[in-house]
Design goal:
The complex is a heterodimer.
Chain A (H helix, E strand, L loop, with lengths): L5 H5 L19 E8 L7 E8 L2 H12 L7 E6 L31 H10 L5 H8 L1
Antiparallel strand pairs in A: 1-2, 1-3
Chain B lengths: L4 H26 L8 H27 L5 H6 L10 H4 L5 H22 L5 H9 L1 H20 L2 H19 L8 H6 L6 H18 L25 H8 L1 H5 L6
Classes of the chains: A alpha+beta, B mainly alpha.
Chain lengths: 134, 256
């Protein structure tokens, strides 16, 4: 027996016992991907999914699921079926050759140089000051 | 602003009915927790219920400042005849169509009531009304969205929503049962009165109902259910209070 729930499919139940009918169109809700924006002007970040019959209700649900326990400026919902994704089989397209680490942001260490410059010019680091004053 | 002793009593009466409405509908709606139609709706509905209980608590705290007992005592140790909520909020949750329709009719009135109170001369309630504005706005958004969806989704959903609207409308009219001191509340600029609230409510819900293809029951059938504001309740309230306060009453002095 095939089911949307992989646990049922794995159980390999005989088909004969399944008397259920496929859901009619209106009974089957879609999923919506939820994107959360913390502050106006910042980017929306994907936070999860809700089930809903339409975008308005998806927003109503998203507000409670994802906006209730964090600071929120704005939410987006997008039908999951609208998302186009790369194939995991093609994951190798992202593999960077080891000696090209200069392509990765993590390869850049600038704080040392900034600190050195600050010291040479007797500039105080404002962030550090704030931390000390706390 | 300074109020006379009599005016303070009138303000208290107003606060009691608002707080009691919020507590009782909040408790009723919390009965859906864990039983909602889908998990997302369960969470949203429960959260709305919890907000309302929070509003009740905040108003009981104001009453406490005015010399009444503390919030827990007011919420848990009074009997039905001491409550001033309307009958509508004490009715059992029924099926989901009724609970949603009740929220729709009640929340729209609640939103306008608190909008009116945000301009009240009685500062503690004006301040609270401004603070909880966003929460109530969401409660209305939730209810309006569902009513529109179910009003138009299928023939069955439309019929059920229309039937439950017809069955609950007279109860909803009970929200606007006038108190004895409507005029005094107006002249002291504490609250502009149930009549103003009712008119504004009616035009709000008419708009949403029209969008939902639902029809307001014919005026000739309107027959408001009054009594709650005087402490005369349906048989549903006392069992609700007994259940709600069951744990608290085991030991009212304990620290939670």
């Amino acid at each position: 027996m095939k089911s949307y729930d992989p646990r049922i499919t794995r159980a390999k139940l005989p088909d004969a016992e399944d008397k259920s009918e496929p859901l009619k169109k209106m009974d089957e809700w879609e999923t919506y991907e939820v994107f959360h924006q913390k502050k106006r002007g910042e980017q929306h970040v994907h936070v999860g999914v809700v089930h809903a019959p339409n975008p308005e209700i998806a927003l109503i649900f998203a507000k409670e699921q994802y906006g209730r326990r964090r600071i929120t400026a704005n939410l987006w919902v997008v039908k999951s079926s609208c998302i186009h994704a790369t194939d995991y089989e093609d994951q190798d397209i992202f593999a960077t050759v080891p000696e090209k680490t200069y392509r990765e942001a993590s390869d850049y260490y600038v704080m040392d140089r900034i600190r050195k410059y600050q010291k040479e010019h007797s500039i105080q680091d404002r962030k550090e000051l704030r931390r000390k004053n706390k | 602003m300074n109020y006379s002793k009599k005016e303070i009593e009138i303000i208290k009466e107003l606060l009691f009915k608002i707080a009691d409405d919020q507590l009782i509908i909040g408790h009723r709606n919390s009965e859906w927790t864990g039983l909602g139609p889908i998990i997302e709706e369960d969470i949203a509905f429960s959260s709305i219920a919890q907000d309302k209980i929070g509003h009740a608590q905040a108003i009981y705290n104001i009453l406490h400042e005015l010399g009444e007992a503390d919030a827990d005592t007011l919420g848990f140790l009074r009997n039905a005849n001491e409550f001033r909520n309307c009958h509508f909020v004490e009715y059992p949750i029924g099926e989901y169509d009724f609970s949603l329709m009740r929220n729709f009719l009640y929340n729209n009135a609640e939103l306008i009531r608190f909008e009116m109170l945000s301009g009240s001369s009685f500062e503690p309630i004006a301040k609270l009304a401004k603070k909880i504005k966003g929460e109530i706005k969401y409660h209305v958004m939730h209810a309006d969205t569902w009513i529109k969806q179910l009003g138009k989704a299928t023939e069955e959903s439309h019929d059920r929503m229309q039937k439950t609207l017809n069955g609950s409308f007279n109860l909803a009219l009970g929200i606007f049962e006038p108190g004895e001191y409507e005029e005094a509340l107006r002249t002291t600029k504490v609250f502009n009165g149930e009549r103003v609230l009712f008119d504004s409510w009616l035009s709000s819900i008419e708009k949403i109902l029209e969008d939902s293809t639902l029809k307001l029951p014919d005026r000739s059938t309107w027959n408001q259910v009054y009594g709650g504001r005087r402490g005369a309740h349906s048989d549903y309230l006392q069992p609700l209070l007994d259940e709600m306060a069951e744990v608290f009453r085991i030991d009212p002095t304990t620290e939670w």
